[in-house]
Q: What sequence folds into this?
């Protein structure tokens, strides 16, 4: 009887010990989980990420773009796939652009466009990409030399136009679409003027065939740009120098039909301001 009682007591004590140990373990685990999930200590918590974002916005407002870039890069990595992460990417692109890092800004926008094809802000990303590549500022030395926008390398202009065209085609009703269309017309005129500038360069150096070909290329690609008047004139002069009378006469006929009051026909040429110059 005593032996049976003793065995029962030992079994009950062992079970009680196991229960106490399990309860202690659970309590410790809950305590650790509570500590680890405290927003103040979790760098990836919504509260901390929002605080970082507010700091980055303040830096951008004050013009401290380098510091804002570092903060926004941290947010982009920690908040990937969230609305906040998307906003951080867009602000990161803008901060890079404002700090003079155009290539980095475009890279961030390309990453946003690729990773967020269904984002509600996709039209804005395309618009910003167009703006980043769209630069009509000649700079100090360009102004001193009266450099024409069309005389510079046009790859950035073509990239800008491609982004604006994608915006207009995918989001024709976007609030950014009207301005994008205006900029497309501006860039088209600039690219046409660039081709004519190159054609003029060839003509002035006696490369008449190259001049005629470049002017013709401008005529085919940009059918309504103001620079096409001079393109036709260069074709007339170049074909005349080459002795290609039929092509010369054809080009002159098109010039007369398209621009009946052209100064190139009357010989009363004068150096006007470029079409793009508003001052």
A:
């Amino acid at each position: 009887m005593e032996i049976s009682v003793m065995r029962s007591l030992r079994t009950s004590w062992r079970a009680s010990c196991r229960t106490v140990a399990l309860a202690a373990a659970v309590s410790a685990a809950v305590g650790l989980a509570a500590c680890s999930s405290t927003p103040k200590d979790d760098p990836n918590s919504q509260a901390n990420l929002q605080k970082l974002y507010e700091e980055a916005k303040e830096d951008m407002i004050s013009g401290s773009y380098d510091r804002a870039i570092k903060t926004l890069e941290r947010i982009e990595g920690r908040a990937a796939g969230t609305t906040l992460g998307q906003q951080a990417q867009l602000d990161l692109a803008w901060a890079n652009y404002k700090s003079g890092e155009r290539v980095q800004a475009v890279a961030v926008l390309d990453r946003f466009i690729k990773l967020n094809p269904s984002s509600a802000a996709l039209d804005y990303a395309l618009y910003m990409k167009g703006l980043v590549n769209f630069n009509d500022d000649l700079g100090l030395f360009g102004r001193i030399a009266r450099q024409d926008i069309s005389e510079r390398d046009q790859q950035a202009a073509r990239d800008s136009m491609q982004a604006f065209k994608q915006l207009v085609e995918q989001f024709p009703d976007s609030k950014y679409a009207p301005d994008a269309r205006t900029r497309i017309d501006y860039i088209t005129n600039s690219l046409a003027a660039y081709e004519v500038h190159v054609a003029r360069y060839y003509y002035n150096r006696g490369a008449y065939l190259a001049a005629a070909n470049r002017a013709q290329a401008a005529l085919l690609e940009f059918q309504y740009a103001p620079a096409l008047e001079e393109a036709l004139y260069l074709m007339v002069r170049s074909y005349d120098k080459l002795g290609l009378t039929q092509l010369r006469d054809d080009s002159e006929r098109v010039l007369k039909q398209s621009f009946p009051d052209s100064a190139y026909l009357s010989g009363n040429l004068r150096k006007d301001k470029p079409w793009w110059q508003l001052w």
Summary: The chain has 13 helices and no strands.
